Amino acid sequence: MLSTYQFPENFLWGGAIAANQTEGAHLEDGKGLTSVDLLPTGKKRWDVMLGKLDQLTPIEGEFYPSHEAIDFYHRYKEDVTLFAEMGFKSLRVSIAWSRIFPNGDDETPNEAGLAFYDALFGELLKHGIEPVVTIAHFDVPVHLIEKYGSWRSRQLVSFFETYAKTIFERYKDKVTYWMTFNEINMLLHLPYVGAGLVFEEGEDQEQVKYQAAHHQLIASALAVKAAWEINPKFKVGCMLAAGMTYPYTCNPDDIAEAMNVDRESFFFIDVQARGEYPGYAKRFFKEKDLSIVMEPGDEELLREYTVDYIGFSYYASRATSTDPKVLENQTSGNVFGSVSNPYLEKSEWGWTIDPKGFRITANQLYDRYQKPLFVVENGLGAIDEVTEIGEIHDDYRIDYLRQHIEQMGEAIEDGVDIIGYTSWGPIDIVSASTGEMKKRYGYIYVDKDNDGQGTLNRTRKKSFYWYKKVIESNGQDLESL
Hints:
- The protein is 39% helix and 14% strand.
- By secondary structure, the protein is of the alpha/beta class.
- It has a single domain, classed as Glycosidases (TIM Barrel, Alpha-Beta Barrel), CATH 3.20.20.
- The longest helix is centred in the middle third of the chain and has 26 residues.
């Protein structure tokens, strides 16, 4: 059955990956140690992600999945060929900051790192695939954490600006679409992952997080400024971990609580897209006795250099309540806690499956900002079984994606301007939240397990052929194979 909606001509169908979850080669060709290289699997992972462990060197006996990941650093040509076979129009990737500046504050960049991304972008363009590049995807050089305290320090703004200018100049003829910080609102929930923050005993963590947020927002504005000056054709976006929050009931208290939960994330994009701190944030700072230190000119920078588009991830909606009994029934979803929604199913990892919430979220963002949207992450993490003859029948993934793409089409019919759709994990990669390999998102199976064992061989899943058909029909043919 053909759909009743039309996706725009030149819609950027594709997939999305991150350097730290795919590349491996964690200290190869001059790359420095980065924050994600210190995330082990197992129980200690969450303590590190929350900024509770001050451990800035790998611990002997722990397994760090980013160190090899899926070896994209050496196998990218093979993988790009597979993406091209599916007909990708775009691939969202990130640049590893510590490949370009191993320590973060180096005077000169690492040529070997720059050359790798030259080669990667060249390979993509050879196959007609548009690179969509995230500048910082949960990635801070460890030296900047050790010496400066990471984004709690204003000095990181300058280092980030230098890094951004370096890659803008180098790739100004290869890349058009950029994003500054991946899921910038994650800073509040996983402060080490989002901003490399490690907390000292007794300090005001809220104060540290929001000061770090201000530094990232200024860095983002300076990146927009540099991008426009280096190549006026550049399009620079922000990136939000999105998913609207439903009030559990029509009790006005629940509705107000849902509004406040959403504003916690919208705060970042309000500044990046609208150019100023919103009134509700100022009230929050006042009531929490938080004092955000600003330098002269900061407000002008934020006002003048807003983003060109809104990138966002969507995996699940959320729900909240003011009833303590309701709050006891929690589920998970992309790190954000949520009241379990009785109307919706959940994934194997407890993430709410809500395709219609995707349409609602897209409308919510477009109504709020009136800027083009780019869906840069959406997908289903699931356990895949390989048959005796080496096939992977992931119909559950096809069903999930089909329903979400249908709702994206409905959002476009609603009048929402959407640039493209890069589903998360077109190839199996290391899970950002758990460090697992068994939590698979890809159309391409990678032979590797949670302990790092396997051949790393790539195998096309059933969804590979389905997504190829979706792209060929520009979203018109979503039927299962």
